Amino acid sequence: MNAIMKYDPSEVQKNVDAYSEGLKKALRFLGLPAEGVLVEVDERAKVIRNLPDVVAHLNPDKRIEAMYISKFVAACGAGLFDAALNFLWDETIVNLRKKVAVFDLQYFFDSVITDPDRRANLKSEEDLKKLDDWELIRGCRLTGILSDIGFQHLDYIRNMRNWASAAHPNQYELSGLQVIDWLETCVRYVLAKEPEGPVLVVHKLLYNLRTQKLSAPDISSIKANIDLLPPDLVLSLLRSIFGMFTDPELSAAIKQNIRLIAPAVWQAATDENRYEIGFKYSIFSANADIARKNLAHEFLEIVGGLSFLRREELAIILNEKLDNLLAAHFGFNNFYTEPPHAKILVQYVPKSGGIPTAVLQKYVKTLVLCRVGNGYGVSFAALDYYDLLIDRFQDQQIFVFVKLLFDGDVSSRFQFPECANEFRRIANELRSHTSNLNLRTLLELIVAKTDYELSNIQNDKYFKGLLEASKIS
To answer: Structure pTM?
Structure first.
């Protein structure tokens, strides 16, 4: 520890300077480009000077194995910041996969993958590699492995890795302070941090469901802990116990444990969460998956949720199309892959704009994420489709739009001024779509708020109170 903290940055910088000059001479001798290949030495010096403070976040046991930091430092010292970002991101993803596997792999898959067919093919730690990076970090937020603030930071770094690193052709110039800040973020929120707080409550509950025999007297204390869970973890827990219960191979003992706790989880969930479970029943029915359909029906009977069943074929189709559009939006080259999916989506949305309740939240959220963009713009060829569909928004969709301010996936975009501006522009356009005074006031408040105020809307008691009073039945 002391040896690291007392190292001489100026001595390191001298060696870096000598290496840079030697490399440039070699490139010129070979007739190759020598300028603009490496980051300027003064930017590398910023990384070198700040390394001790960042490395100090790691305990000695983790530090001695931190090969990724050695590669990160070597790449920065060589002036290849884009390569350094790749080393850092790859290690962060590997570390998150390990945390998921150690914590509860099946819980993670049940929470993140809502398509039953795809979920059936995800079983082992090796299957985590089948998930895109955005799915992994979003899933870690949903299951509590990542905090909301950690997710926002990593989502930003993921975007930069896609657009500004050696993983993607570009001419973006990274600064020393940027890359050392990203290293500190990944170390603090992932590499040096273990799950804690409410997420451990869920972990213990799932472990007990699988290994213990619960009885009625146990439920009151379990319910008290469930009631204290944040909404995202309640949703993840509900998805997990439903996924377990509808597995025909699940043991009778675990099924009985789920029967005991399911009503408490259902009571803590929101209507949106309950509609999602009802929608899964519809998928089993449409796919003629009789065994899972019957188990889903039993689950809904246990929790008193049969009124949340949704059988519309349109909802099933829309859900699939929205999944395809989201995957295109979060993937590489999204500006080119989004338009075909957006065009298909228009064909399934009636001109009235009416959307089945089961997919209403997902529909509005998907359109808004695509329309505000990812910080680098919006898919130009898909723009008219998004505007056409948003122009059909009525009170129900507008209410969901306003609520998106409290959604981590959407609020994370407000760190990009262009995204915040687009969100305000949509709010301004929607003012003429409603005669509901509360909704109009909420939209006007959004238009008037700064980027910072939008990102911290959860602290605005007046806004939250007005939103609560504006619920659309």
So the answer is: 0.69
At 428-447, the pLDDT tens digits run: 999 999 989 999 999 999 99
Q: Helices (DSSP H) in 30-80: which residue ranges?
A: 41-55, 60-63, 67-78
Rg (CA), the chain: 25
Retrieve residue 127's tokens: 């299957």
| Contact assessment for residue 126 and residue 120, using Cβ atoms and an 8 Å cutoff | no
Which ranges constitute the DSSP H helices of 249-356? 252-268, 271-286, 290-303, 313-330, 334-348
Q: Annotate 269-287 with DSSP letters as a single string.
A: S-HHHHHHHHHHHHHHHHT
Per-residue pLDDT tens digits for 377-422 = 899 999 999 999 999 999 999 999 999 999 989 988 998 999 999 9
Residue 282 confidence (pLDDT) above 90: no
Residue 2's pLDDT is what? 43
Which residues are within 8 A (CB) of 175 and not within 5 positions of it... i.e. 6 or more apart? 43, 46
Predicted confidence at residue 261, as pLDDT, reads 94
Report whether pLDDT(4) > 60.
no
3-state secondary structure of 142: helix
Report CA-CA distances (Å) from 232 to 238, 260, 268, 271: 10, 21, 11, 13
Say how far apart CA 198 and CA 205 lie, in whole Å: 11
* Contacts of 302 by beta carbon, 8 Å cutoff, 6+ apart: 259, 262, 263
On whether the CB atoms of residues 367 and 344 are closer than 8 A, the answer is no
Look at residues 431, 316, 425, 329 and name the one whose alpha carbon lies nearest to residue 375.
329
Among 191, 206, 197, which Cα is nearest to 258's? 206
Burial of residue 395 (number of CB atoms within 10 Å: 0-12, 13-18, 19+): middle
Plot region of 317 (φ>0 → left; ψ -120 to 50 → alpha; else → beta):
alpha
- pLDDT tens for each residue of 79-135: 788 888 888 888 888 888 988 888 888 888 888 888 888 888 998 999 999 999 999
> What number of H helices and E strands is found in the chain?
26, 0
